[in-house]
Task: inverse folding
C-alpha cells in the first residue's frame, strides 16, 4: 500500500499543495459563519456551503474525510478553489466614524484525492480555515486630537491528511489529522491608551472524523466531527502603548496564551430527486464558547509583567443550510443555496476590529464539467448586519465600543477548477 501512495505521479499531484501552503501565508482572511468560511470549494459554496453528505470534490475531505471513499479506483483528483471577498464594514463611535479600508480579501484552497483500492482512499488538503481582517482610521473619544490606524489581521491555515475506508457498499468511515499555523497582530484604543500587539505566531493540530451512509443510490447521509485545535501560545510579537496620543513606547514581549480553536459537529443529507435535481441540507454546531474566540488573554513580559483579558465574546453558533443543484445539460450545473447562522456575538463584547456579524448568506454558482476537468464561478452575498454596544462593554476601558455601532456587509466572487487523471 505505501509504495503505491508515494509513487512519483502521486507526489507530482501533491506538490502544488505544499507550494500553495507556503504562498497562502500572504493572504489575509475574512470569514462568514463566525470567523469560519460558509463552505469549501466552488460546488459547496454554490449550494450554501453544504458538503458533508455530498463529496463531489477532493476538497470535500475537509468537511468530511469519509467522502474520500467516493473517489473512483485508479483516479487521481486535484481541485482548486478561490474566493475574492469584498467586505464593507463601518464603525460609528461616540466621536468619530470610519469605514474599514480592507476592501479585498483573497482566499485559496486546494486538495488532492486518490483511491488506493476498492476499500481505501486517501487525500491531502490545504485550507484557509479562519481569521480576521480589518483596518480603520479612527479618532478615539479620549484622544480626539489624533487619528489612529486601528485594525486586526489574523490568519489560520490548515494542512489536512485524511483517509477513508469503505466498510460496505453503503457505509464509509473517514479519519484524519491536521497541522495548523496561526499568526496575528492588532492595534486598538482602550480608553486613553493606543495599544499595538506586534505580529506573533503559533502552531497546533487536531483531528477529524467522518461517516458517509447511502441507504439508497439516490440518498446520502453524512456526519462529521472536527476536534478542537490545540496550539502553542501566539508569541514573538512586541507590545507598544501610547497614552493620550504621545509617541508609542515598547512595554514588553507579548503572548496570546492558551490558544484553542473551536470544535465542530456537522450532519447533512443529499437527495437526488431526479437525474437532474439534487437537494441538500446541513446543520452545524461550532463550539466558539469553549475557544480563544470567546475568551482571550494577552500576557506581557517586560519591566512590568501583566495579564490582560480581551474577551471577544464569541458564543456557540448553529448553522442551517439548504441548497440545490440542477443539471442544465450534460456539462452545465447550476447551484443555489441559503446559509443561516445564529447570532454568535453579544453586544457587550462588540469590538469593531474583531467581531464578525454576518448571519444570512445567499449563494449561486455555475460550473462546466467534461470527462476529466471542470471549471466554474459563483457569487455569495452576506446580508447586512449591525450591532450596537448598548452602553456597556466587557472590553477593558472599551468606552469607544460601548458607545459605538458596527455595520457589515460582504460580497464574494467564487471560482474553482479541477482535473483528474
Result:
Amino acid at each position: 500500500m505505501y509504495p503505491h501512495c508515494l509513487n512519483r505521479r502521486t507526489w507530482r499531484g501533491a506538490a502544488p499543495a505544499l507550494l500553495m501552503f507556503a504562498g497562502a501565508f500572504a493572504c489575509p482572511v475574512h470569514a462568514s459563519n463566525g470567523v469560519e468560511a460558509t463552505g469549501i470549494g466552488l460546488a459547496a459554496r454554490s449550494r450554501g456551503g453544504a458538503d458533508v453528505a455530498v463529496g463531489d470534490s477532493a476538497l470535500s475531505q475537509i468537511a468530511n474525510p469519509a467522502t474520500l471513499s467516493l473517489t473512483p479506483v485508479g483516479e487521481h483528483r486535484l481541485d482548486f478553489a478561490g474566493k475574492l471577498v469584498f467586505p464593507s464594514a463601518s464603525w460609528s463611535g461616540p466621536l468619530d466614524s470610519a469605514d474599514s479600508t480592507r476592501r479585498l480579501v483573497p482566499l485559496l484552497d486546494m486538495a488532492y484525492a486518490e483511491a488506493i483500492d476498492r476499500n481505501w482512499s486517501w487525500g491531502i488538503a490545504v485550507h484557509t480555515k479562519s481569521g480576521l481582517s480589518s483596518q480603520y482610521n479612527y479618532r478615539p473619544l479620549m484622544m480626539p486630537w489624533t487619528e489612529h490606524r486601528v485594525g486586526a489581521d489574523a490568519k489560520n491555515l490548515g494542512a489536512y491528511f485524511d483517509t477513508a475506508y469503505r466498510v460496505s457498499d453503503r457505509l464509509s468511515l473517514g479519519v484524519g489529522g491536521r497541522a495548523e499555523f496561526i499568526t496575528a497582530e492588532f492595534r486598538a484604543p482602550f480608553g486613553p491608551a493606543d495599544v499595538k500587539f506586534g505580529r506573533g505566531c503559533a502552531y497546533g493540530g487536531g483531528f477529524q472524523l467522518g461517516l458517509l451512509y447511502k441507504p439508497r443510490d439516490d440518498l446520502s447521509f453524512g456526519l462529521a466531527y472536527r476536534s478542537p485545535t490545540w496550539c502553542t501560545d501566539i508569541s514573538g510579537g512586541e507590545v507598544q502603548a501610547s497614552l493620550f496620543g504621545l509617541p508609542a513606547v515598547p512595554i514588553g514581549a507579548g503572548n496570546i496564551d492558551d490558544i484553542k480553536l473551536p470544535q465542530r459537529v456537522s450532519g447533512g443529507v443529499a437527495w437526488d430527486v431526479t437525474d437532474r435535481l439534487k437537494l441538500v441540507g446541513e446543520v452545524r454546531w461550532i463550539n466558539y464558547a469553549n475557544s480563544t474566540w470567546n475568551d482571550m488573554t494577552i500576557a506581557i513580559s517586560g519591566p512590568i509583567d501583566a495579564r490582560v483579558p480581551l474577551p471577544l465574546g464569541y458564543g456557540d453558533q448553529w448553522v442551517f443550510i439548504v441548497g440545490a443543484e440542477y443539471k442544465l445539460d450534460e456539462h452545465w450545473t447550476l447551484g443555489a443555496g441559503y446559509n443561516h447562522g445564529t447570532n454568535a456575538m453579544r453586544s457587550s463584547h462588540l469590538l469593531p476590529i474583531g467581531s464578525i456579524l454576518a448571519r444570512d448568506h445567499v449563494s449561486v454558482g455555475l460550473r462546466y464539467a467534461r470527462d476529466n476537468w471542470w471549471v466554474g464561478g459563483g457569487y455569495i452575498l452576506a446580508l447586512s448586519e449591525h450591532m450596537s454596544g448598548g452602553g456597556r462593554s466587557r472590553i477593558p476601558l472599551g468606552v469607544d465600543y460601548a458607545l459605538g455601532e458596527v455595520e457589515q456587509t460582504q460580497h464574494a466572487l467564487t471560482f474553482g477548477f479541477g482535473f483528474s487523471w
In short: The longest strand covers residues 193-216. The radius of gyration is 22 Å.
